[in-house]
Amino acid sequence: MVVKDMMPNFELFQPTQVKDALAILDSYGKDAWKMAGGYDSLVWFKERIKRPKAVIDLSGIAEMQGIKETADGVEIGALTTLTDIENNSIIKTKYRLLADAVAKVASPQIRHAGTIGGNASQDARCLYYRYGLPCYRAGGTTCYADTPEGINREHALFESDRCVAVTPSDGAPALVALDAKYVLRSSSGERVVGSEEFYVGPKIDITHMTSTKPEEILVAIRIPNTWAGSHFYFEKVADRNVWDFALVNVAAALKVQNGVIRESRIACGGVSAVPRRLTAVEEILKGQPMNETVAKLAGNSATRGARPLNYNGFKIPLMANLVTRAVRDAKA
Amino acid sequence: MAYNLIGKEFTPVDVEAKITGRAKYAEDFRADNMVFCKMLTSSIPHARIRSIDTSAALKMQGVLGILTADDVPEFPPPAPPILAKDEVHYIGEPILAIAAESELIAAEALEAIKIDYEQLPHVIDPLESLFPGGPNARSAGNVAAGQIALQTVKWEASDFAAAGETKLPMGRAAEEWSYGNVDAGFKAAKVTIEETFVTGTYSHNCMETRSSFAYWQGGKCFLHGSNQSHTSAIANISRYIGIEPENLVLIAEYCGGGFGSKIPGYPNMAVAALLSKKINRPVMHRITRTDEYGIGAARPGFQGYIKMGFGADGKMLAADMYLVQESGPSATAGDFRAAGNALTLMYQPNAVKFRSVPVLTNTVPVGAHRGPGENQFAALVEPMMDKAARQLGIDRIAIRRINAPDSKGTVGKERGPLTSAFQKEALDKMALLFKWNEKKAKSGQRVGNKVTGIGIGQGYHSAGTNGFDGLLRITPDGVLHIHTGIGNLGTFSHSATARVAADLLNYEWENTVVERGDTRRGLPFNSPQAGSLSCSTQSRTMYVAALDMKDKLTDIAAKSLGGAAADYELGKEKVVHKSDASKSITYKQAVEKAVELGGKYVGKEVPEDLNPITKNSVAMIAGSGLIAVAKDNLPRVGVTPGLSATIAEIELDVETGKFEIKEMLCVADCGTVLHPLGLGHQISGGNVMGIGMVMERHIYDPKLGIPASVGFHQGKLPTYLDVPVEVAWAAVEKPDPQNPIGVKGVGEPVLGSGAAAITSAIADALGGHLFNRTPVSPDMILNHLAGRPPAHKPLQVNAV
């Protein structure tokens, strides 16, 4: 029977070292759950949909907290709260795009506890998946959203494969635009991957949003200084102005010299399972003047190939408009 | 008339209690040996229950008992059952409850229960149920409402074919009426507006879920509940528990929001009480947010058609409206009737034809939601008035003013009288304060990506009744105890109306106590705290009780000091001889004398016409002071209309489909202002809820019958950043002649005028485009601006 709103029991671990957390992960395998800020985890538990035997509360691991400048950029501990990132002077002066993006996540209360690691790894918000139905993403054999009657206003325009859910993250498109690298550690070592490898669509892994393996922990996110001090633009459009997920968001970094766009990285959230990097638009913009006409061309080009579902066609003009605004209004 | 307390500010007890957390709600209470219960609810939208196997659950350690439909009073369908017996009609419908030592044990026991269901066809869209061969939400029928017996109604396929995709099919109505010559009105009309529309269902979203806590002592059931009303709910709640009203002790001092969903109690209040009786332990029944979305009610939606004919001067000559109401599974709302009345009242048409059919659906039960019917009507029809004004070349406020009721206006199919109506004055004041003549030119102006829209909305709800009892007591310490059974919905009106009695008796507010929140305190039978009734109705009971107290005080003075009662008047908490101020007795002395006199002075004899609840309450406090008690038999003829007008200015971003409310101003026709702070909160809060009507979503998967808008996040309630920093407000301040203080209520109309101001402003920003739908979500605006068709079908429900 469907019983909700009551958290089942689980073993709670509160390690203070990454190595201890990894050891617990190794011993529990797939029955372990990694929890950072807890905002998503606790809801899954309370709904009795995800039922891990062991919950590893990572919040006491000092090593995974804080922001430090490195020789070639900045390293952000995965447990750094979104509020801390929003207020950090290095981020604000050099990588403002990320500060602007995380400032739009959820609500102030959630940003105080929510972490960048959690935000970057956010799970899909598809109503059917969240309802606990046995859909593809939940390991089942059907999709309830992509049917003639399915409610799919919030779903994907691009690159769906059986599952049509999207990334709900506001931080992720900004990280993609800033060319962030993700540090994944396991007992057997550490690997550092780019956004292209970190975020995975349903074609590669239909039950996960990232390539983090069960035995790995995302310990830090590194942002290279390649894009430091560029022209930036972030915007999120949601039904509500606070405490909501983006219908579509856009994050853009543009290197502009004398009014000419030399290079850019642009990504949109809310349109596919992974933050959608607009490489074609980036090519189009190369060497173009930063003006309304070019911005409009960028917007129109951004949505090329979109395959709307029954209810999400509005995302096409919305995405086009947001990309237009990003190119038109990005500021250093 | 000059008052000392009426119309003045004071700090209601709620303010400090709620800010400090001292206010105790139902689930804050505890008792020795208390246990918990949790409900198992239906996971299927429509099914027959073949069997329930609870054997494994009942064997679990810590499980103490179970309550099923066999243990609770039954009510004839389509009334909502306390627990479903043979058939379930929506996802979230309670089937049984388990009591256990902890909620975790209860939840695990519920998971061990096996129910064998026979799935039945379900229906989310009323029109699908009316289509030939369409599913019925209940096996016994698909149409029902108060005064409309449960029956099966199927329209002809030709009704649907004739209407096509964009117009409401209009088959046989379950209820219809008309007045005047509608055909002649349309014939004479210079402009005719004809529209099909859909208003969305949405939940009440009370912050406090409807938890309850119950135990039994000495044959009485002690129930801590979350309820808007107090003494008016006792009969109903007793019926749910199956006890006599005098055996219910109802404790409900604070209520964390009801908005119409907690008026006369509700079936679920009986679960903790009956489980407690069965297992002989105090039972706490905390309703979770998921539970609340199942049993917590929702505003019913309409699929509607309206045709309105206007003369060249803007006067509405005729109107024809058809409403198909999405009624949930239990026929618990009469919104369609109220919407018909709103049409007659708001625009005073010369002729009206009204038809409706309330259709049962396998969605959550619906119920009164702040301005039930009137406000859906306002949000949809007010923008159409702008369309008419534009076609006629008339100012948008002027067309409303031409049609607005004055005190000679009428309401309803009978065209009954009004006690007073000053809507034209409300519109005038709104126009003046907003500077309409200066600002109206901003309509449609575009700067960058932003277009300004200005919208006007009007709201109406009847706002006062009579026939309830007032009860006052002065104790030997001279303190005035003002007994009120109105309840505490959170509007401060329990005390704002109590101040009428204090004022009339020349009391300092600090020397009074408002007795409320617990039937053991001796509470009189009062109006439901609903229907914008409290201020008007309760000020009347306070008035009649104060008159009785005044009579008794002057009577006692005459008995003590000589002369006739008429020789005395009330001074500062004393009774003074009119022509000889040296002859006086204090209220305290009067109480001493009252105790000596006994009888009616101390509540030992009471008027025959009091409600039995009041008589019981007086018996509880009899002898403890000087007691005044009376039934409100003051005359009142006609409907007392609460009215409001809101104007809103928005900036709509044509690139995102989002809008920002730059200014919002509301003027209320609510008679004499009792309590400015409370009125201001009602007006602001109502307008914010009006914004909510335009934003809040209620999505169902039609194939699975799954509700998707179950949570404060998914429901899209407006947040601080979605509403203006301030809703400016004013009152017309013309007293209602049929209330002794001149008071009318206004809690509900302000939601309707607020919602309508926003829907009108959106239309205005879009060059007059009517979505003819609530909510209006950014996707709808974006599709329109991009020249794309809407994603939903014109009459589709629960999809936006």
Textual characterization of the structure:
The complex is a heterodimer of chains A (332) and B (800). Helix content of chain A is 30%, strand content 21%. Chain A is of the alpha+beta class and 332 residues long. Chain A is globular, with a radius of gyration of 19 Å. Chain B has 800 residues and is α+β, with helices and mostly antiparallel strands. Chain B has 3 domains: 183 residues, Aldehyde Oxidoreductase, domain 3 (Alpha-Beta Complex); 315 residues, Aldehyde oxidase/xanthine dehydrogenase, molybdopterin binding domain (Aldehyde Oxidoreductase, domain 4, 2-Layer Sandwich); 167 residues, Aldehyde oxidase/xanthine dehydrogenase, molybdopterin binding domain (Aldehyde Oxidoreductase, domain 4, 2-Layer Sandwich). Chain B has 21 helices and 36 strands. In chain B, helix 10 links the parallel strand 18 and strand 19. Chain B is globular and about 85 Å long. The model of chain B has no long low-confidence stretch (mean pLDDT 97). The interface between A and B is large, with 41 and 51 residues.
